[in-house]
Structures are given as structure tokens and as C-alpha cells.
From TrEMBL:
<keyword id="KW-0812">Transmembrane</keyword>
<keyword id="KW-0479">Metal-binding</keyword>
<dbReference type="InterPro" id="IPR017972">
    <property type="entry name" value="Cyt_P450_CS"/>
</dbReference>
<keyword id="KW-0560">Oxidoreductase</keyword>
<dbReference type="GO" id="GO:0020037">
    <property type="term" value="F:heme binding"/>
</dbReference>
<dbReference type="InterPro" id="IPR050121">
    <property type="entry name" value="Cytochrome_P450_monoxygenase"/>
</dbReference>
<feature type="transmembrane region" description="Helical">
    <location>
        <begin position="107"/>
        <end position="129"/>
    </location>
</feature>
<dbReference type="InterPro" id="IPR002401">
    <property type="entry name" value="Cyt_P450_E_grp-I"/>
</dbReference>
<dbReference type="GO" id="GO:0016705">
    <property type="term" value="F:oxidoreductase activity, acting on paired donors, with incorporation or reduction of molecular oxygen"/>
</dbReference>
<comment type="similarity">
    <text>Belongs to the cytochrome P450 family.</text>
</comment>
<keyword id="KW-0349">Heme</keyword>
<keyword id="KW-0408">Iron</keyword>
<dbReference type="GO" id="GO:0005506">
    <property type="term" value="F:iron ion binding"/>
</dbReference>
<protein>
    <recommendedName>
        <fullName>Cytochrome P450</fullName>
    </recommendedName>
</protein>
<feature type="transmembrane region" description="Helical">
    <location>
        <begin position="64"/>
        <end position="82"/>
    </location>
</feature>
<dbReference type="Pfam" id="PF00067">
    <property type="entry name" value="p450"/>
</dbReference>
<dbReference type="GO" id="GO:0004497">
    <property type="term" value="F:monooxygenase activity"/>
</dbReference>
Amino acid sequence: MYNVQQSSFLAFRSTTSKKDKTPKSAGWADRFFESTINACHDTKCALTSLDEQSPKSKYFDHKLMPLTLAAIFLASVLLIFLPEHTTNTFCEEKVHLGQEENRRSAWAIKSVFLVILSPLIIVHGIYAFKFGYRFPFKGPRGGHLLYGQKFSGGQDALFRIEQWFREFNTRTISFRIGPFLTVCCTKPEDVKNILNARPNRIKVVPFAGEAFESILPAIPALHFADGKAWEFHRKVGVAFMKHLKTNSMVDVFVKGASDLVNKVTMDQSTGGAAITFDAMKLFGKATADIIAQLCVGSQFQGTESLQLNRQHPLYHLNERVHLMFELLGDRMSSPIPLFFHRLAAFSWAPRFLQDMSYMEGGYDLSQYLRALIHDIYKEEKGNQASTDLIHFLHNSGVDVETALGLLLNFFAAAADPPAKTLSWLMMFFSQNPRVQELVREEVRRVYNEHQKQSGSQIYQDISKFPILVACIKETLRLKPPSLDIFGQIDDENGFEVDGKVIPNGAVLMAFFRPLMIDNMGAEDTFDWNPHRWLSNTPSTIARLEKNFHSFGGGARMCIGRQLALQEMVVVAGHLLLTHKVSLDESRGPVCEIIRGTMQPDNLYVRFTPIQA
């Protein structure tokens, strides 16, 4: 059940990490080393609570890490003195090695272990000395995120916490989410107030930008700016959305959907009548290819050509995008990763090479796109033959670095959420075969009624597919990729949340999922029921639309919401017209996980071709 209405809000405090970040002018090597420090340090994000029963999180903070560090160091030392026959087991082959060869191989393995472990221990030690995590932190007692403690106490307690932040919290976590505290609002009425607040009372917070810049410093242009820069980015983005609507956007969607159907059909031709795919990987690759076409146009040749060159910077673009969100998710989102990945020292070590690989890949992608932008910018302005984002930015007079930032932002924001929604949609279709058949009949009927039209013309107006659109909206209502929206109080009188006045400067994290679920006023509010968008009275549907915030709200409303909705209609329509979908239940239960945004885990979908 998704009912979280009982908890009013959570107040976060941060206890580590330095205040001043690496200057943007620093060399890439310095930024990479800084990212290594950030990758392994404990953010120690704790819930502020004056509840005397709350566990003393400082004991978890300052005792476990040194002990684990000591254990790792001891293990590395013991490895050097292991008996030779122990390490020999690592180098046995079918052909028996001689004693001398075994001895050399054993010492080689020991040396490799030592070379790998030593830098990790050194980095960990530098962090221990630099950030002083071994010592208890001052301030009010706080329950760790693992225990799910919510804020308790009245207005006086809240002001005491505020005073503590102002006095002691001279450092903030690397992805800064506020000057001293963040309030997580879950009550529908509070969320509404935040979304409807005037911009001069609650301003935009560059939360994602801080996270991107601190975790992925190798891509300095990747950011979501605030203030005038943010307004400029949004203005250009809105203009590009309008530009796409009047050009070949639907053509790109139809081509991407056709390529996806061809992939499923081609894979089935090599095997049985049905084939199973990891939904996130399948749709992630499809949506990433679509977005790449919109961004770089003819410069991106699609999957077929990229398979010929695995070193191409755009190879498996969706994997880079997913890794980006996975890194962000593991850094800041879920209580369990925060506890185990941070407090259990070196639990991040198995992911270290993956982290470095992504940073290197992201840096390569950034450099490739920068060179591509430079080449296109050499052309004369006014080239209207190309409708992709790079040419649009060139014709709009946007400089190279700003264009690179917008391009990377568009990749990150537009490729991932549709893939997650389409994956959830396939799950719901599998669980509701009757609805799946209704949608298939709807798509088939529209095709029959418009036989003389091309696929692009058929999907130009998605109102022809009311049932499919209702299914997508219902999926977004229950499984929104983004669960919250951020805003910073910019009012000397503060802002009232749940009857308490939150002080000026605090960051509000408004969770709109309960607004769409708990506040529906229907008994089946937790059920996937697309008919609620079709069969209700006009007033009820108006209420549904008013509480529908899967694309955010207020100043941070997603500018690509219509683009995303049309893309999902095209892809889902193509698939259902040619294939039946069902769950591969042998893989186990499907779960929700946070990878920057919320997505399904362990979701495998079986596609069975429909006989003509």
C-alpha cells in the first residue's frame, strides 16, 4: 500500500562533507580525485528528532567505519603472508604448473591485491582525516534514516533545531539540498500549498544540478541551473518543444517504435514463439535511441551502426543514462543504500570500477558531443533542413558550452522516465489481459479507419487513442518516475507546513505521490483502473486531472510532458498491435527501486507474436 498520509513531514540534517566544492577551473584529474572522495564518503544524512527513544546515530557514524577500515587493512596485510598453496588455488589450470611458476603466480596475485587495496585504503584514510568522521557530531539527537524516525515535537523544538543548524552545521552534504534543513511534505493539502505557492515565496532549487556536479564532476556542463540561467534553459527548452511539434517529432517516434518491434520480432525468429526481455533494458535502449535522434539527428545512426563499433561514444547510450541515475540513486535516495553503502566501509568497493567506468564514459560522451557541436556550429546559421536539438540551438544563438549542458540535460531527463513508465505499463497490461485486448482493438480500429495515412499521421493526434492514454495516465498515477519536487522558502515569515512554520531558507521536498493516490476519494484508489479516466463524471475527471502531478507542478512542471505522452502512445501502440505481453513470473516478484527516479526491478516481460 502506498498510504503515507499518516506522516506529516521529515526534517533532514546533514553532518559531513566539506562546504567548498572543487573549483570548476580545476583540472580534470583533480575533479576526478574529488569525485573518488565523494564516491566513498559517508553522507550521514540523518533525521532530526528530539524523541529520546531515537537511537543515537552518532555511534553508528563514528565507530563502525574505523573498525571496518582496520579489518580491511588487516586482511590486506595477511594476504601477503598467506601460505603459497592458498594462493596457488587461484592459478591452477588444466595443465599443471611447475613449482616455480606457481610461486611466481602466487606472488603476482598478492601484488595485484596489494596494488588494488592500497589506494583504496589511502583514499579512505585521507577522507577519515579530512572529514573527521571518527568523532561524534554535535547537535540534537537524531534517528538514522534506517529507522524511519519522523520529526516529533512542537514549534519550539523546530526552532531549536534551526538554531542548531545555524550554529553547528558549517558543512553540507556534497549534493547540497538546502542551507540547513529539508522538510519532506507528504500530506496532500501541504503538497498542494507548495505547488500553488507564488514563485516569490518558494523558489526553484537546483537539487539535481548539485548532485550531478558533485557526483559526476567529469561532465562539468551537466547541470540544472537556477536563477537567470535556469530561466534561460527553460525558455530554450520550451521553444524546442514547440519546434518539435511542428516538425518531425512523430516521425522519430514511429521509427523508434518500428525498430523496437523489429528487434523483438528478429529475436523471436531465432527462437520459439515467445521471447522474454528485461523490460527496463528493452525500453531503455529504445527511448535512448529516440532521444538521440531528436538531439543529434542524422549524426546518430542508430543501433545497427553502433554495434559495429563498441568504442563509439554513443554506444549503448541508455546504459550510460541508467548508470547515471543508478549512481545518483545509490548516493542519495534510499535509506538502505545510505546505511549499508556508507556506514559499512568499503561496501562501495565492488562498484568502484563501475563508477569509474561510467565517469570515463560520461566524459567521453561529453567530449564527443562538444566536438560534434563545434562541427555543426561551423555551418552557416539558418539551416532549417535539420530539426534536431543541436541545429536548433545553433540557430538560436546558444554558445557551445550552454548547448552542451542543454544537450546532456535533455538526454538525462527525456530518455529515462518514458522507459520506466513503459515498463510498468507492460506489467499492468500483463496483469489485466482484458484491458490489454481493449487497447489492441482500439489501435487496430484506428489503423483500419486511417488506412491511407502513414504511421506518423495516425499518431499525430493521440486523442484517437483514449483507452491507451487512460492506461498510461493510470500507470503514471500509481508509478510516477519522479516522486517529489523541491522548492526553497524565500519568505522572511517562513512557510506553514502541517501547522508548523518552517523557517526561511529551508528546502521543501513535496511528495506528490500521496496527492495522486491517497487523495483520490475512491475505494479502489490503490488499484490500476484506467476506466476511472473514462467512465467518471466530468467533475470527477476534473479532480483526477487537478491532482495528476506525475510530471511535477508549478515552476518545475516538466516541459516535455506532451512529448513523453505521445512517445509512449506510439511505442505501446506499435507493440500491442503485433504482440501479446505477459509477465515471466518465474523470475520472482517485481519491486520498486530508486535509481535517481523510481523504476521496476526484476521486471521481465514475455512477448508473443500475434498471428496475422
